[in-house]
Amino acid sequence: MENYVIRIDIPEIEEYLALRKDCGLSPRGKEASKIGLSNSIYSVIIRQSKNQKLIGMGRIIGDGGTAYQIVDIAVHPSKQGNGLAKKIMELLMTHIHNEIDPQAYVNLIADCPADNLYKQFGFVETAPESLGMYLKR
Length: 137
Prior knowledge:
Layout lengths: L3 E5 L4 H10 L7 H9 L3 E7 L5 E9 L4 E9 L8 H16 L5 E4 L6 H5 L18
Parallel strand pairs: 4-5
Antiparallel strand pairs: 1-2, 2-3, 3-4
Helix pairs in contact: 1-2
Organism: Enterococcus malodoratus ATCC 43197
Pfam families: Acetyltransf_10
Protein name: N-acetyltransferase domain-containing protein
C-alpha cells in the first residue's frame, strides 16, 4: 500500500462521478451526488501517492441508528487485484463493528464476482427468505 494514500474522507464530486464511470457503475447526477456524498456516515478513499488521483472508494450510508448500507465500493480497473477493495472493506467494517449498534441492519448489493469479497466479511445472501429489490426507473 506504499504507493497509495488511504483516508477517511469523501471524494470530490467530479472524481466520484469519474471513478463510478470508469468502474462501470451506474451514473449519478451531479447535484444528487453532492447531497449524497455530504450525507455519508463514513467514507474511505484511496489516492495514488504521486498524483493524488482517486483510485478507490467506499461509503456507509443510512439513518444513523437502525439501518445502514455499504455503497460505492469501487477500485479503478487499472488498480484492481492489489487488495485495495479488501482494504476499503476492512476500514468500513472496523467502523461498523466499533461505532454501529450490533442490532442495526447492515446491507449491500453485491455485483458478481464481488460477492466473494463481501462474504469474507460475514455478508450472506438474503434469499430465499428475502430478495434484494430496487425501483427500476
